């Protein structure tokens, strides 16, 4: 007997993730609530973290890479005086320090962590080393020596100082930036040690807190009917930050069939914000998004059509 695959539904749901669950746990719970055939998330959050976790259904899964490439905003609480092996409150203490930086100490250190920097990921991360996950190696007592990786930090600010043991920061960053590493490294730069005690994601690409719904709102109805697709945001919502290019119906049809279009015929319509070298634009047939297209070598080529 073939297993039921679930409903074919398309769109985005932004969950306000609670602490204590993995991102995969949330996806599985939401997928069951909607009886959906296909779902995935737009950027992992640690179990300790709360906040925005966009869930893509059906055709929206094609747009996940563009959400993950988008700017993210976080707020984290740095607990000073204890380093932990996971760089967050879930880990074991590995080092202590009595040094407590002043607000001015933090503000002097912050500029070095902004712009394009190199960052050493936490040992407890999903990065693969010779085919193994770093966190599996660390749990086995074989913590890997991870090399620094490029990271982009657009904004890193001290926003509150509740007491001398605690500092709260807000960060805007690109993809693949670890808040646990930022917390660890800003403490080290100020002559002490520390770890993330709390972390909340406030924004992911075009999705903001006002778009999010609590996970417990998706509990089954009395009749156990699946959650309504009316709760979902359109697939194209994920692409709102990408420059829009107006196309004729004929151009849209050509791109949808995999054909490239010369940029000469699009002169005057190409948005100023689009990068002419490998830039991505949102192809529009009237008010309908047909997909994402790439500017390349004088041509507009279909990249990911919806």
Automatic annotation (TrEMBL):
Keywords for this entry? Isomerase, tRNA processing
Query: For the Pseudouridine synthase II N-terminal domain, which residue ranges apply?
Result: 31-179
Q: What is its EC number?
A: 5.4.99.25
Residue ranges of every copy of the tRNA pseudouridine synthase II TruB subfamily 1 C-terminal domain listed in the record: 243-306
Short name of one Pfam family for this protein? TruB_C_2
Gene Ontology biological process terms, A to Z = mRNA pseudouridine synthesis; tRNA pseudouridine synthesis
According to the record, the segments passing through the membrane are none
Cite the tRNA pseudouridylate synthase B C-terminal domain residue spans from the record: 180-239
Asked if the keyword tRNA processing belongs to this entry, the reply reads yes
Active site, per annotation: 46 (nucleophile)
Q: Which reaction does it catalyse?
A: uridine(55) in tRNA = pseudouridine(55) in tRNA
GO MF annotations in UniProt? RNA binding; tRNA pseudouridine(55) synthase activity
Family per similarity comment: Belongs to the pseudouridine synthase TruB family. Type 1 subfamily.
Describe the function of this protein.
Responsible for synthesis of pseudouridine from uracil-55 in the psi GC loop of transfer RNAs.
Name of the featured protein: tRNA pseudouridine synthase B
Q: Which organism is it from?
A: Gluconacetobacter liquefaciens (Acetobacter liquefaciens)
């Amino acid at each position: 007997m073939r297993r039921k695959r679930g409903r074919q539904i398309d769109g985005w749901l932004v969950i306000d993730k609670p602490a204590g669950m993995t991102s995969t746990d949330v996806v599985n719970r939401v997928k069951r609530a909607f009886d959906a055939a296909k779902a995935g998330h737009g950027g992992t959050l640690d179990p300790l973290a709360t906040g925005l976790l966009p869930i893509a259904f059906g055709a929206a899964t094609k747009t996940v890479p563009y959400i993950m490439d988008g700017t993210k905003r976080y707020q984290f609480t740095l607990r000073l005086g204890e380093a932990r092996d996971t760089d967050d409150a879930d880990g074991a203490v590995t080092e202590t320090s009595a040094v407590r930086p002043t607000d001015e100490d933090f503000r002097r250190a912050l500029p070095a962590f902004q712009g394009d920097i190199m960052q050493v990921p936490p040992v407890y991360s999903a990065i693969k080393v010779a085919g193994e996950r770093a966190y599996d190696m660390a749990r086995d007592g074989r913590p890997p020596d991870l090399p620094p990786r490029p990271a982009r930090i657009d904004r890193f600010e001290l926003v509150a100082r509740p007491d001398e043991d605690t500092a709260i920061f807000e960060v805007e960053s690109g993809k693949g930036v670890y808040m646990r590493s930022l917390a660890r490294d800003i403490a080290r730069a100020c002559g002490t040690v520390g770890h993330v005690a709390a972390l909340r994601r406030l924004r992911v690409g075009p999705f903001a807190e006002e778009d999010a719904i609590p996970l417990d709102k998706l509990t089954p109805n009395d009749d156990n009917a699946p959650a309504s697709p009316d709760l979902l945001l359109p697939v194209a919502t994920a692409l709102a930050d990408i420059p829009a290019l107006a196309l004729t119906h004929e151009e849209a049809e050509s791109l949808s069939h995999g054909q490239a279009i010369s940029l000469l015929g699009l002169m005057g319509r190409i948005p100023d914000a689009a990068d002419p070298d490998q830039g991505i634009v949102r192809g529009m047939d009237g008010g309908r998004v047909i997909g994402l297209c790439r500017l390349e070598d004088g041509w507009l080529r279909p990249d990911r059509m919806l």
